[in-house]
Predict the structure.
Amino acid sequence: MPVTMTHRGDSVLLLATLFIVLGLTVRPDLLGAGVALIFVLAALRSYVSLSAQALGKVSVEWKIKGRREGEEVEVSAVLRNPTVIPILHAEISVAYTPFLKLTRGSRAAVLIIPPHGTVEYRLWFWGRTGRHRVGPISVVVRDPFGLFKSQVVSIGETAEFNIVPAVHEAVVRRLLAYTRSTGLSKRREPGVGVEFYDTREYQPGDELRVIDWKRSAKRLRLIVKEFEKETYQSVLFILDATPWMQLGPYGNTPFEHMARVVSSVSMYLASRGDLFGAIVYTGEQLITTGRLSRGMSGYKRILKTLSSVSYTEPSQAKYPRSQMIRAAAKKAVEILPRERNVIILFTTSGDEEYEKTVRDVVFKLLTLGNIVYVTIPITTFYESKDLPEWARIVYRVKAADTTRKELSFARKLAKTGVSTIATTPSQLPQQIARAIEVSRPA
Amino acid sequence: MRDKSKWTLVSWGLFIALLAVGLIGLVEKGPPRAYLYIGASPLSGLSIGTADLIRLLRANYRHVTVVSSPSQINPPPGASSCVYIVISPERGYGNDASEIIEKLSECPRAGMLVADEYTMSNPLLEAAGLTARVDGVPVLDATGSPYVTAFFQLPSRNISVKLDIASSVSGGVEVLGWANAGSSLVPVAVVDRTPQGVYAIVVGDGSIFLNQVLKTKEYAKLAISLVDYLCGSSDCAIFVEAGKYGAMPVEEALQHPSLLNQLTPQDMLVIYFLLVAKFIHPSTWFLPVVEATNQVARALLSDQSTSVIVLSVMLLGLFLGTGRLWSKVRDEPLGEQEEKAVYSTAELREAILAGKYRFVKKDFQSLYGIVNSLLTDLTGMGLKDKDLVSYLSKYVNGKVAEKYVRKMNALHDKSLGVRRLPIVLNWHRTTGKMIKESEKILSALGASLATEKFSSREVE
């Protein structure tokens, strides 16, 4: 590995040559000092060269703790030096996804890695829904005086980890309370199902399998079990996770907010026994939960799907949004059961072509007997969240045109017959729950 | 595979170090000894030397030795005869003559070839017990020229050659060669023999054996024939005398015109090459250069201004030279990962936060629209509504409310071009002022332009 002399080493070399020249001409006692400095330079260079070779053998093991949005994620890099050469001055810089925010720790540091020893280097990030990468680590070795430095090398592989969206328990409880208090959630009724409802006396026509023999023996007459009528609803979330949904402040982009809403509503649906699933379309791929499922397993699939989204900038999108939403719709047709499903599509506004595509997709899904709602988060609301109050006011006035255009997108869709939910972020979970409940079969 | 053009087998530093060691070694070894041998020395390659005779003899005989003292005459075992050759000696013989004879007597058959224009070699002939003598008298032809033609009658052939200032020879048992001295024939070469069996050929001219003539076939044949006569067979050990000639350092030769006159242009070329070799040898110039450098350095360093220049130049040279050993780079810390937050309205946000924004007429229209929507949501009445003022009077001062509503509507009409008054000099200041007043009114109603309240719509 090449070793180069730094500008500091250059200064020391100049001093050494000055001593040598003066020693040869005017003061012989300086000659020794000059030669000694040259030897010191040579020795330090040799040390840096050895350390650089040892650096090539250092291994990195990543450990990651914490996988939830809104919490700290601790990422540790354990650097192991298997050689006998101490690496005294290793400057490191850790690479990670630029869309992550470091909360504690330092992106760069100077380490001492002892021979046959390890060093654990920790970073803490603020958890953000999606898929993130940390590593590799760039390292350069210097001597203790910084006179020589090695070439910059990358050690360790890239570690990937997923962060799941937070579920606001309060939101879920509020949804349950809201739907019950507004009469949207259906009262329990006896009927065909698996959930126990009540007992009654046997009537001719009741199946033998529903006889409750224990109670019957107690009461000395035939008693049967009644079950709750199943009124489950299958719900599919189609979430736009293209780079245009990822614009905004950290932790509060439309995608992250929609992911929280979807995870909260999914928790609600899991408690209701409904079938649900999700299709997420990014600028490069489709990520799906697969077939719809219920309960906690369905909920976990939702979290896994939402946490698999990587962040990119609009310029890095591989495919146009129109193409991806069409692909998502096609996938939806494949995985949805052949019945009336509720489909909630989350996407931001776009140009005319995208508006037309959204309309076509919605109508296609409608013709298959589904109920479709389109939720359009207004990006200007998200992008003003992290501004100071006075700036928020100015922003609202200056961005009024942009806000109008986004609302106009929603209105145009609505005018063509597409059911559109354009509401404030805090109202969104309730509006979605309401839409699901009114669609629930009687 | 590594590019061969980039292979460095020996570094420049090592090369220079080895060069310095070599130079110092050569200096310590001392200067080369470049000598010119005077006369017909067998060690001389000049035109007046006899080195070519040695080459000719070695081409015909196995044992040919150049000797500089009698102790070097050691007949090899198996040699059937020994022949001692001396050509025009520059120095005479003393006790060494008998030593030479004694050494030659160790051979079964001993012989001597003596070619001399002078009497230098006569003591040797006497010590051998021979009667032949070189007279030391030049033979001249009819015109008085010393360049006479001589006839040699040898058992194998007869050869005629030109002599160069030859001497007559007397004594001996048989005349071998005659020179035409005008009216008579003078013996210039004789064969002699001692009772002990030592043969000798005495020739009164050594120049027939010189390098400058041996290139000619006749002279070469003569030389070999004479040696053959003495040797008798090929098992002959030949000893050629080299100790009877002087040597002069080559640089002194240039100060002897008499010597230089004898030399050919080719000889002068050899002398010059020897001089160049001596000159370029480090022992010749290294110490004087070092001494001269010391003197110059002392002179320069004794003066303050020149010493600064000299030291600076030395420093710069040494620094640049040692600096080339290691590649250099400006040291900078490693770049750190940059975190990004991407906004669709990034430019607007940055402008607002930096204070680099200005409200224009359109912004006031936007403000009016926002306030109108908020008031409609909160009160059910818009800014144009007649009952709004009385409603607002419940929350703020009535006059303040009235003034606010009137001003907002007037400015709105002005911005739409519906009316000319009020005069607005600066929409930025006016809009900013109305924002503040709107906030006061809205905050009295429990709302704010800063919150996200807008008409919640659900369209089915």
Notes: The longest strand of chain A covers residues 130-141.
